[in-house]
Amino acid sequence: MSEAAYITSGRNTIIHKIRKMDLLIVSEIEHPVIKVTQNGLMVHDGPVPRNRREAKDAYCEVIHIASPDIFGEPKTLLFVQCLNGKEYKVDYSKTDSPLFIRVHQQSYI
Length: 109
Description:
Elements: E1 6-9, E2 13-16, E3 22-26, E4 33-37, E5 40-44, H1 52-57, E6 60-64, E7 77-81, E8 87-91, E9 101-105
Parallel strand pairs: 2-7, 3-6
Antiparallel strand pairs: 1-2, 3-4, 4-5, 7-8, 8-9
C-alpha cells in the first residue's frame, strides 16, 4: 500500500508531506473544497475525484475531514501546514470572506 500524502496532528491540523501529490480537503457539502499544493492553499473549482484511482491519476489525494479515519467530525477551524514553510488557517465559518483562508504562521519549521 502506498504512503499517505499527509499526516494529522492534534485535533484540527493536517500536515502535507509529499511534494508530488496535492491534497483535496472536503469538509461538508455546503463548504468549498480546499486544494493544498506545494505552494499553498486555494479553493478548488474543478471536480472532486470519485474514487482513489481517479485521485491517483490526477496526482492528488482526497481527504474527508469528517470521516472517522481523519477527525471524526466536521471542523469549523482547520490548520494546514504546507511544504512552502507556511501554516494556513481555514475558517469554515467565514467561507464568503477574505478571511476564509489566510496565513497563520509564516514558518512553522
